[in-house]
Amino acid sequence: MSKTVKVFACASVGNMSVGFDVLGCALNEPGDIVEMTFTEGSEVRIVEITGDDGKLPKELMKNTAGIAVAKMLKHLNIEPGIDIKLHKQMPIGSGLGSSAASAAAAVYALNKLLSEPLTPIELVKFAMEGEKFASGAAHADNVAPAILGGIILIRKYEPLDVISLPVPQNLHITVVHPDLVISTKEARSILPDSFERIDYIKQSAALASFVQALHTNDFNLLSESVVDHLAEPYRKSLINGFDAAKQAALNAGALSFGISGSGPSVFSFSSSLETAQQVGQAISDSFAHLNINSEIYAGKINQNGPKLIVE
Ligand code: HSE
User: Fold this and answer.
1) pTM of this prediction?
2) Where does residue 198 fall: left (phi above 0), alpha (psi -120 to 50 degrees), or beta otherwise?
3) Helices and strands of the chain, counted as H and E runs
4) Class of domain 4-165+303-308
5) Mean pLDDT (whole number) for 289-311
6) CA atoms of 102 and 149, how far apart (whole Å)
7) Quick check: 136 pLDDT over 90?
8) Domain 172-300, what fold?
9) Is 174 a catalytic residue?
């Protein structure tokens, strides 16, 4: 037998400023492609990685996609031979959930290959194993939206449970990836273990308000709610030109501005595609003043999750 499946899984914005480790949303682009084929043997191998400039290891247990696949097969108690090809189509260390996109595409492809023994939320758990390896913590705010699509609230980690939040029809998102690299592990290590009570109060109020804003299509409330009193004060110093980029985004009409995941990518919400594109250009121009190149993505939130390319 040599059945092959090919799956695209998207980038995601973890935290969305207001929900550290508990909120994330899916983007339409960029993303990664995983191709998986049954072989006659009983070994799982990553046989090819493209688009990574040689940065990613092919050893199964050192690769987020490989780890997720290995854990899933162990759980299912089966030992099929599988060849995996990973095509990276997004930057690594970008704050766009690059490791999550690979793991999400891999578990989704494996589930398809095996005729779907697991539910999407079960797939999230195995993809999280890859995140644990990549960042030192099994956070789900990138893998859950990459697998489920939309805006996802991680309601509980033990056991994992998520809520798919409503996505207002005119909500647009801009993500700008400046040409800087930040490792999530490092960006997590600079955060304190505990926070001031006042910041906890402000952050919980903001998160609750954000959920209300999504339910009521209230963009004014959304604009006031997308704030980060926890991670941003520590992490913004890792992003050269953060404050100027924020000002540029808000001047161009953005509803909000913050760090995507652990950075260096930044993101804004807008109420139209035109504004989202202008905001992208304004942020990019602001980075360009510091001689930092950047890539812009602007569009709607991806509500479909991974895409099966070939079956
Ligand atoms: N929630 C994670 C963090 C996202 O902020 O460390 C990493 O993309």
Assistant:
1) 0.95
2) alpha
3) 10, 11
4) alpha beta
5) 93
6) 15
7) no
8) Alpha-Beta Plaits (3.30.70)
9) no
Annotation says 131 is catalytic:
yes
Q: Where are the domains of the chain?
A: 4-165+303-308, 172-300
Cα–Cα distance, 310 to 299 (Å, whole number): 25
Q: Give the model confidence (pLDDT) of 164-183 as tens digits.
A: 999 999 999 999 999 998 88
Q: State the average pLDDT over residues 253-268.
A: 97
Question: Does 235 sit in the ligand 1 pocket, CB within 6 Å?
Answer: no
Q: Which residues touch 34 (CB under 8 Å, ≥6 apart)?
A: 6, 7, 9, 65, 84, 85, 86, 87, 102, 105, 106, 108, 109
Out of 35, 129, 131, 232, the active site residue is: 131
| Rg, Å, the chain Cα set | 19
User: Quick check: 310 pLDDT over 80?
Assistant: no
Q: Do domains 4-165+303-308 and 172-300 have the same CATH topology?
A: no
Cα dihedral 9, 15, 21, 24 sign: negative
- Average pLDDT, stretch 154-171? 96
CA of 78 to the centre of ligand 1 (A): 32
What pLDDT is attached to residue 138?
A: 84
pLDDT tops 60 at residue 260? yes
Selection from 24, 25, 30, 23 nearest residue 9 by Cα: 30
pLDDT above 90 (res 104): yes
